[in-house]
Amino acid sequence: MRHIISVLMENESGALSRVAGLFSARGYNIESLTVAATEDPTLSRMTIVTRGSDDIIEQITKQLNKLIDVVKVLDLADVGAHIERELMLIKIRSTEQNRLEIRSLADIFRGKIVDVTASTYVVEMTGPSEKLDAFIAAIAAEAIIEVVRSGPTGISRGESGLHL
After folding, report:
1. Mutual orientation of helices 15-26 and 54-66 as an angle, nearest 10°?
2. Structure pTM?
């Protein structure tokens, strides 16, 4: 089962490598990883997407909690209702024949064209991973030059959250 694990950690050099090392040493796969500073510049929030049984996820969270840089760990699957979003930039080959179609698809999927050249469009899109997958599927494969995705990140709904 897919899990999104949020880790609140000290904003220190080497913290990321210690977390990645933990996953590597125990043979756990990281599907995606995002890290950024929080509203408190001394803390960073790391979002890890991984797969595993409940036992494996429990082991991962226990091991993460043992790391000196880690302040709090939260598996978003445990909190119930949460919001997931992913950012994608997609570079699409444009021709006279497909320009209107690409713009229409970007509008339908609530994407934003952020760069235009004589032969390409770059579309920015955020949303659930399934939406981004659907947009990619709607574009002719031969027109896609490059896709960059952030991986999912998430936040719990309501008053609860990962904070001090």
Report:
1. 140
2. 0.83
Check whether 164 has a pLDDT greater than 80.
Answer: no
pLDDT at 9: 95
Tokens linked to 73: 């760990």
Go through 107-146 and write b for each residue having 16 or more CB atoms within 10 A of its CB, e for each that does not.
eebebeeeeeeeeebbbebebebebbeebeeebeeebeee
Cβ burial 52-79 (10 Å sphere, 16+ → b, else e) = eeeebbeebbebbeebebbbbbbbbeeb
Q: Is 22 exposed, middle or buried (0-12, 13-18, 19+ CB in 10 A)?
A: middle
Angle at Cα 50 formed by Cα 47 and Cα 52, nearest 5°?
145
pLDDT digits (tens, 9 = 90+) for 72-84: 999 988 887 899 9
The answer on pLDDT for 163 being more than 80 is no
